[in-house]
Specification:
Elements lengths: L11 E6 L5 H4 L5 H12 L5 E7 L13 E2 L4 H10 L21 E4 L11 E4 L4 H4 L9 H14 L2 E4 L2 H11 L6 E3 L14 H10 L6 E5 L8 H9 L3 H6 L2 E4 L7 H12 L4 E4 L5 H10 E6 L8 H8 L4 E4 L4 H5 L4 E3 L4 H13 L1 H16 L3 H17 L1
Parallel strand pairs: 1-2, 1-4, 2-3, 4-5, 5-6, 6-7, 8-9, 8-11, 9-10, 11-12, 12-13
């Protein structure tokens, strides 16, 4: 039989959005979307997909891209074209991979930047927070941005999301057909399972004035992360426990965080043993901080997945987390759960993990087992299976 081989019989050629992982566009600071994009870039080739990375350029940044090549239009211009031009007009991307290279089989948008293209588009939508919880987002242009996101979500031929919890949200908020949604749990990189060298870990802790055994939080400071209640819960601990265990908050300031930042700084100035690391961008140092923690506390009110939870599991740190949204699904019983709206509940969980050694050990063992089920290799294989599913329809 002649003709081109089917996609099931050859390596797929996939365009991958790397806008959120491009240092020239992010300043080198990776958020959850950036970690996700970078992980797929690294792990998809071993799963059967040749990856061609692309980024939406910002003014003056196209020449400085180092991860992928620039798409022909910025996202605002491409979006405007989608709104004003007929639906038959697409961004020509499938032939951008190289003059003599085969065209792309599909394009995978790893964030909300989704436009019509001349090949099928698979989109990862992590959550619908701006629509489901507008009170957590900046009011300026919120309505326009929400409308654009809804339109963008409907342009994709298929949607990937990180948890079963998120399916309902995407259906209700974006109007995505549930039959077009696949769940692919995120993962952790192999190095998270390896204990860092004690000297390197200790050097990082000393650099930031940390004593091993602290309570750790990692995440951008924004309302849904619930760091204000975490701070209240820590300050409600017995003084002897606070003296023994610092609260270490790792994360850059985000939306609506000015009041929280002031509270964190004030607690530190009062000598409350609260440490805020706002500029940490080094992966190795972040690994060291997990390794030095006595407990990881994740009080988020809303997560589409919650990568820091799994990073803590892999690092061998006992975890206490919210019983809200996707987090129980991700933890699968490996973490101590609490009501994120209850400061006393959070305080009780922190006290328990600090004082109950047997429970700590059970949480550590269960967390390691759970993390072994959530690797980027597994996520990449499942993602490629979704590609084949889309192309076979």
């Amino acid at each position: 039989m002649s003709g081109a081989p089917s996609t099931a019989a050859r390596m797929l050629r996939v365009g991958l959005s790397t806008t959120t992982a491009e240092p020239a566009l992010t300043g080198g600071r990776l958020d959850g979307m950036g970690v996700y994009s970078r992980a797929l870039l690294e792990h998809l080739p071993q799963a059967g997909a040749e990856v061609v990375p692309f980024s939406f350029p910002s003014p003056g940044a196209a020449e400085r891209l180092t991860v992928g090549r620039a798409l022909p239009l910025s996202f605002p211009l491409a979006t405007l074209g989608n709104l004003l031009l007929p639906s038959s007009v697409h961004m020509n991307v499938s032939r951008l991979a190289g003059k003599d290279a085969p065209p792309l089989d599909l394009f995978h948008a790893t964030d909300y930047r989704i436009v019509r293209m001349d090949c099928p588009v698979v989109a990862t939508l992590h959550d619908a927070v701006p629509i489901a919880h507008p009170e957590w987002c900046k009011p300026r242009l919120r309505g326009l941005k929400n409308w654009l996101q809804i339109q963008a979500a409907r342009r994709a031929q298929h949607v990937i999301t990180g948890s079963h919890y998120s399916i309902r949200e995407l259906v209700e908020c974006f109007g995505v057909d549930e039959r077009k949604i696949s769940v692919v749990h995120h993962g952790v990189r192999p190095e998270w399972f390896e204990a860092p060298a004690p000297e390197a870990r200790d050097a990082t802790l000393a650099r930031y004035g940390l004593n091993a055994g602290y309570f750790l939080f990692v995440g951008t400071l924004q309302p849904r992360k619930n760091v204000g209640r975490l701070l209240e819960a820590y300050l409600a601990l017995p003084p002897v426990l606070r003296a023994a265990r610092q609260l270490v908050i790792v994360g850059a300031p985000g939306w609506l965080s000015d009041e929280l930042v002031a509270q964190i700084k004030a607690a530190g100035q009062r000598g409350e043993n609260v440490i805020w690391l706002s500029q940490l961008t080094d992966d190795a140092q972040l690994h060291h901080l997990y390794a030095g923690a006595g407990a990881f506390i994740f009080p988020s009110l809303h997560e589409g997945f919650g990568l820091p939870l799994v990073e803590a599991f892999a690092s061998g740190v006992p975890v206490a987390t919210s019983n809200a949204t996707s987090l129980p699904e991700v933890a699968q019983g490996a973490a101590l759960e609490f009501d994120p709206l209850s400061v006393p509940d959070i305080t009780a969980a922190m006290t328990t993990l600090a004082r109950d050694d047997a429970l700590r050990q059970r949480c550590i063992a269960a967390g390691r087992r759970r993390a072994l089920e959530l690797t980027w290799d597994a996520a990449a294989r499942r993602t490629v299976a979704v590609y084949h599913q889309v192309l076979s329809n």
